[in-house]
Amino acid sequence: MVRAYTQEHVYHHQWDRVTTAAWRKFTDPDTPAVLSHIVDVHTLDRRLDPDSGSLQAVRSITVRSPPLPFLLRRILGQDAVVCHCVESTVVDARGRSMEIVVRNASLRGLLEVEERSTYRPHPDRPEGWTAFRQETSIRCKPFSALAAVAEKVEQRCAERFQQNSVKGREVVERICNYLEAETASAAAAISC
Amino acid sequence: MGSNKTSRGGGATASPCARLRDAYHDCFNRWYSEKFSKGQWDKEECVAEWDKYRACLAQHLEDKHLRRILLETEASPYFVKNDASSPADRDGTTHQ
């Protein structure tokens, strides 16, 4: 069974600032309080094509699952599990688009999650606003004996993902505001 | 956000590569924000930071799946948009 949902959001900040904030979302020092499920982030690969202005990067994002249903806790012998996700990002600086795909690398016997996000200048105000779109699909691997449990896990994961998506957007928004203030105060300091 | 908090990976991480990672991420964030995203994409930067960080990960990263991504510099499937779940060795060379 697959659950899929789409979210959209408009940031009232220009594209370069929003995508800068998006890169910093998981590693910002204030983030752990908001995105407490993030355990660790590492960059595994990155490459730049200087001719086309294309940047690609692969990162691992280690997360702690929500508390598992009772039956899974019994089977696995622990309350939650640590899961590695792999995030693959392509940024086209020339065309001003950022595309991110996140998939879980571990627990794929239980769950397949794919989250695709894009950041592009908003068509109504390309110099000032950024359109964000995110499509998430969560597919539970069928366990014939545990179908009901599997569906419950999927539902809980979907809810948690949605909550975390909203929190993630708030983090990006906060970093955008910080970057805006930083730019403004630097400009004020120069123009004395 | 300008404070010197040590935990940057999103939690209490005892990762031995944490400091090299933070140095690389700081450099990357600065380069991305000031240059790449504003149109200056012709020059690679943060190369020294990346090399040191990557060497540390090559030594300490434990997860097999993540190690494979890290070490497959030529044939990573994750740069293809419709990638399959197992990597295809496109050019026949692997760097181990």
TrEMBL record, chain A:
Top-rank taxon, per record: Eukaryota
GO biological process entries: phospholipid transport
Position of the signal peptide: none
InterPro entries: PRELI/MSF1_dom (IPR006797), Slowmo/Ups (IPR037365)
GO molecular function annotations of the record: phosphatidic acid transfer activity
GO CC terms of this entry: mitochondrial intermembrane space
Domain PRELI/MSF1 residues, every copy: 2-184
Protein name per Swiss-Prot or TrEMBL: (wild Malaysian banana) hypothetical protein
Provenance organism: Musa acuminata subsp. malaccensis
Lineage: Eukaryota, Viridiplantae, Streptophyta, Embryophyta, Tracheophyta
From TrEMBL, chain B:
Source domain of life: Eukaryota
Keyword Disulfide bond set for record: yes
Any one GO cellular component localisation term in the record: nucleus
One Pfam family named in its UniProt record: UPF0203
GO biological process: intermembrane lipid transfer; phospholipid translocation
Keywords: Disulfide bond
Family assignment from sequence similarity: Belongs to the TRIAP1/MDM35 family.
Protein name: (wild Malaysian banana) hypothetical protein
Protein species of origin: Musa acuminata subsp. malaccensis (Wild banana)
Lineage of origin: Eukaryota, Viridiplantae, Streptophyta, Embryophyta, Tracheophyta
